[in-house]
Amino acid sequence: MAELSKKILTEMQFKNEVLKCEYCEERPCKDGCPAGCSPFDFIMASRLMEKQDFLRAAAIIMKNNPLGGICGFVCPDRHCMAKCSRRDFDGSVKIPEVQAYIIQKAKELGGIPEFLKPRSNGKKVAIVGSGPAGLSCAAFLAQKGFKVKIYEEKKKPGGALNLIPDFRLPRRVIEGDIEFVKTLGDIEIETGKKIDRAFELLEEYDAVVVAVGLWQPVLPGIKGEEKAITMVDYLSNPKKYKFTGKVAVIGGGATAVDCAVTAKKRGAKSVEMFALETLAEMPLTEKEKQELFENGIEVSGRTTVLSINVKKGKILNLKTAKVKLVGKKFSLKDI
Ligand code: SF4
Ligand code: SF4
């Protein structure tokens, strides 16, 4: 609980964010949400902070986004927050954090409101993969009366959500949203079941949805890369690896930050990220950058790694080079 409470706004911080909301008639924040959630409506619903207010606000969130608890923790600030009217004034309302607070509060106050179980339409759908896409798909199909069965290869559902470290997305939040999805209709999840030939499921089901995600690592194609650990391998089971020296992370996105911070938290002496972007250009939220600063991660921007130098089976060092942006030269005629 301690780790979770660190990631949730305090009551005072929540009030502060809610008081910032202007309840803009045009709902620009809703336009920015890929899931169609309306921060205007859930902030408005929760503003008096009574039990019923939190339950109603949580229902508004989960109706549009059955993974609303998870999104409250991991949605980047380039969606709803980027459209918030207060953005250029004194900073956007911290909508994902407000959302996470509402869901957490609703759970503490007796749970997420139940949705009506739909009448069966007599059709069955198989979904291969229980990551965010598979779970969301199951939620919406089940609410339309389909009987849904999700097949998951791994021992626990969640897919790529399980690669996000606990310090950024607590396990109980993932579990809570999955439990909620299962209440939305006739949904069964079978774990530990690998499906090689998804089309064969059509003999038993009316439709099959393949939502297996992208698990193949993208390797840079450099000498020595076979000595590197891929992001999927590392984040799937960080306990398998013990680093006490220097760790290099190649990449500048959110998963690179997850690897870097996890390595540092788990005992690496120092961690350095090598990215083509500068720190300011890296596609990270303010929270993710904060994780870098708080954990003392070094960042070498505008840098490419040319090779991983190995001697007697051990990594010696990296060969790197600075890169620079090459832009088109404009002449006055282009302007
Ligand atoms: S755009 Fe921002 S201020 Fe306006 S309703 Fe949405 S969250 Fe509130
Ligand atoms: S936090 Fe995520 S799900 Fe919620 S409104 Fe913003 S973009 Fe949509």
Can you describe this structure?
- This protein has three domains: 2-108, Alpha-helical ferredoxin (Fumarate Reductase Iron-sulfur Protein, Chain B, domain 2, Orthogonal Bundle), CATH 1.10.1060; 124-210, 3-Layer(bba) Sandwich (FAD/NAD(P)-binding domain), CATH 3.50.50; 225-322, FAD/NAD(P)-binding domain.
- By secondary structure, the protein is of the alpha/beta class.
- It contains 13 helices and nine strands.
- β6 (270-274), α13 (286-294) and β7 (298-300) form a beta-alpha-beta unit.
- α4 runs antiparallel to α5 and α5 crosses α8.
- The chain has helices spanning 2-7, 11-20, 28-31, 39-46, 51-64, 68-74, 80-83, 95-108, 132-143, 171-182, 231-236, 254-265, 286-294, and strands spanning 124-128, 147-151, 187-190, 207-210, 246-250, 270-274, 298-300, 303-311, 314-322.
- The radius of gyration is 23 Å and the shape is globular.
- The mean pLDDT is 93.
| SS field, number of helical segments | 13
**CATH-scheme architecture of the largest domain:** Orthogonal Bundle
Strand order in the sheet with the most strands: 3-2-1-4
The biggest beta sheet is recorded as:
4 strands, parallel
What is the CATH C level class of the largest domain, in words?
A: Mainly Alpha
Q: Which consecutive residue ranges, at least 5 long each, have pLDDT under 50?
A: none
